[in-house]
């Protein structure tokens, strides 16, 4: 009978996700052996303060010295759940160079330095897996790399930030304004004390960079992704969305069109019959279109202690299996193409424009003329009188390049009849 070997791992970080990973590895200890053919043992946990009590963890495992981990030949897997760029980047590079497999949940790092880290993993013949870096517990990186590998993918569109989706859901369903919905999100722990990364679209932008690189086999970094947040969405915009049988969602969009990629994040009016329109509260979803599979959607919890830990532990199991069969590094970067990312100014979108105008004859004609001069075609106009001298005008356009729309808006603001451009939201 074959003697079952033990694979030792080290955790870097023991916050919410790190604690969840530790608990799940302990809970699944017997099943891990059955699923992988090897047993798992946590050999060290890197923390800032080794004197802080951590319930359920043997204090002897705690260390604040990364060098002890990287120089320990018995540790074969490093699980990084600290977050941030440094020192995580340096630690992961060192671990890979020492021949250790790495599992990480670090979207900030992968979105900026993923190419460098994956190259180091390849050079050293080890695994670097990062399923938990996008959409928490929802499997999406592995499906893109493996299950959908027989497809030529053209679209990956997602709601990949639970905080903003919760806020927009509250605004839409309970008629709350933005500030009120944000405060509620903070109370429930969905939003950080400083929610900038979420509400300004930065968190989603990092995930879009990772998704685009994975789906289209060409490197995309965070700086390639245009980001726009939800802070300007008002209750008036929500009312019009309902009138147009739409919802408003913060969408992360990655597309390939005619040899160029598009990668951006922004709030969009989404028809209520689109599958992503039904994604409520703090849930996430990623919608994928492939030439063979057609449309598929992955839905679930996008963050949290155990959903994220689920993805991390799934990667750990994959690494353990690869170690058992001597096939580490079998699925690496996958970026074998070089597809340029289109400048956002050249991307085409439809637009919803809400403005306050002087209520007199000829105003609509002058606005339509100005839009037409910038190659902006109108598909719908709604005008509602607010006061005797002022009206609220809503225009929905056909697809137009971003820079044409931007130039048109600048000229519209100069028209005497336009008192204010209140909202500009793209339409999916």
From TrEMBL:
Question: What protein family is recorded?
Answer: Belongs to the homoserine dehydrogenase family.
NCBIfam families annotated for this entry? PRK06349.1
User: Which segments constitute the ACT domain?
Assistant: 352-428
Q: Which cofactors does the annotated protein need, by name?
A: a metal cation
Q: Which pathway features in its UniProt record?
A: Amino-acid biosynthesis; L-threonine biosynthesis; L-threonine from L-aspartate: step 3/5; Amino-acid biosynthesis; L-methionine biosynthesis via de novo pathway; L-homoserine from L-aspartate: step 3/3
Under which name does UniProt file this protein? Homoserine dehydrogenase
Q: Does the keyword Membrane apply?
A: yes
- Cite the entry's keywords alphabetically: Amino-acid biosynthesis, Membrane, Methionine biosynthesis, NADP, Oxidoreductase, Threonine biosynthesis, Transmembrane, Transmembrane helix
Q: What is its EC number?
A: 1.1.1.3
Q: Which reaction does it catalyse?
A: L-homoserine + NADP(+) = L-aspartate 4-semialdehyde + NADPH + H(+)
Membrane-spanning intervals of the chain = 6-25
Q: Which InterPro entries match?
A: ACT-like_dom_sf, ACT_dom, Asp/hSer_DH_NAD-bd, HDH, HDH_cat, HDH_CS, NAD(P)-bd_dom_sf
């Amino acid at each position: 009978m074959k003697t079952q070997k033990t694979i030792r791992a080290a955790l870097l970080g023991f916050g919410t996700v790190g604690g969840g990973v530790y608990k799940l590895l302990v809970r699944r200890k017997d099943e891990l052996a059955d699923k992988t053919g090897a047993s798992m043992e946590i050999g060290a946990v890197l923390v800032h303060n080794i004197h802080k009590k951590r319930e359920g963890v043997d204090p002897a495992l705690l260390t604040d010295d990364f060098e002890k981990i990287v120089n320990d030949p018995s540790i074969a897997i490093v699980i990084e759940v600290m977050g941030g760029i440094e020192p995580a980047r340096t630690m992961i590079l060192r671990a890979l160079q020492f021949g250790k497999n790495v599992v990480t949940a670090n979207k900030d790092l992968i979105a900026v330095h993923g190419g460098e880290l994956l190259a180091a993993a390849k050079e050293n013949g080890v695994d670097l897996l990062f399923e938990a870096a996008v959409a928490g517990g929802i499997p999406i990186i592995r499906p893109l790399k493996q299950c959908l590998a027989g497809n030529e993918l053209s679209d990956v569109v997602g709601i990949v930030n639970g905080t903003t989706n919760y806020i927009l859901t509250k605004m839409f369903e309970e008629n709350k304004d933005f500030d009120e919905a944000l405060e509620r999100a903070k109370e429930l722990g969905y939003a950080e004390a400083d929610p900038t990364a979420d509400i300004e679209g930065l968190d989603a932008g990092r995930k879009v960079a990772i998704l685009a690189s994975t789906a289209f086999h060409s490197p995309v970094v965070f700086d390639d992704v245009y980001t726009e947040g939800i802070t300007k969405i008002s209750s008036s915009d929500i009312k019009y969305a309902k009138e147009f049988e739409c919802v408003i969602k913060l969408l992360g969009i990655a597309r390939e069109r005619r040899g160029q990629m598009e990668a951006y994040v922004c709030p969009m009016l989404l028809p209520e019959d689109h599958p992503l329109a039904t994604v409520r509260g703090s849930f996430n979803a990623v919608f994928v279109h492939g030439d063979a599979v057609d449309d598929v959607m992955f839905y679930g919890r996008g963050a949290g202690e155990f959903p994220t830990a689920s993805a991390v532990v799934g990667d750990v199991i994959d690494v353990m299996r690869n170690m058992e069969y001597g096939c580490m590094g079998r699925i690496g970067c996958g970026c074998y193409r070089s597809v340029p990312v289109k400048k956002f100014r050249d991307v085409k979108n439809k637009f919803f424009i809400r403005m306050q105008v002087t209520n007199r004859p000829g105003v609509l004609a002058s606005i339509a003329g100005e839009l037409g001069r910038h190659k902006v075609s109108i598909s719908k106009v709604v005008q509602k009188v607010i006061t005797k001298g002022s009206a609220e005008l809503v225009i929905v356009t056909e697809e137009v390049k971003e820079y044409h729309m931007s130039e048109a808006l600048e000229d519209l603001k100069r028209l005497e009849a336009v008192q204010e451009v209140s909202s500009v939201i793209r339409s999916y």
